[in-house]
Amino acid sequence: MIASTAHTQVAAMNLKKGEASGDYGTDHPHADQVLIVLAGEGKAKVDGTSHQLNAGDTLLIQAGEKHQIRGESDELFQTVNFYNPIAYPNEMDV
Asked: Do 66 and 26 contact (CB within 8 A), yes or no?
């Protein structure tokens, strides 16, 4: 977690080629996630639909949507993620 308030969280995600954010089916039942790709290439599976992601792309994952993010390039796949409202209340201290 990079920063967190009572209403919004900001996190960085860095994935090597083949690494995933977790198992498909992850969701945030009460929080939207906005993912902005900073570098590399990746793929997102959101509610069964695949999305190719490249540097400069933005993806909105709505609250409750099942998803998985995966690194797809030799270059590190780097993203910054915004959650609103907060998705991880136990990670409030930054």
From this structure: yes
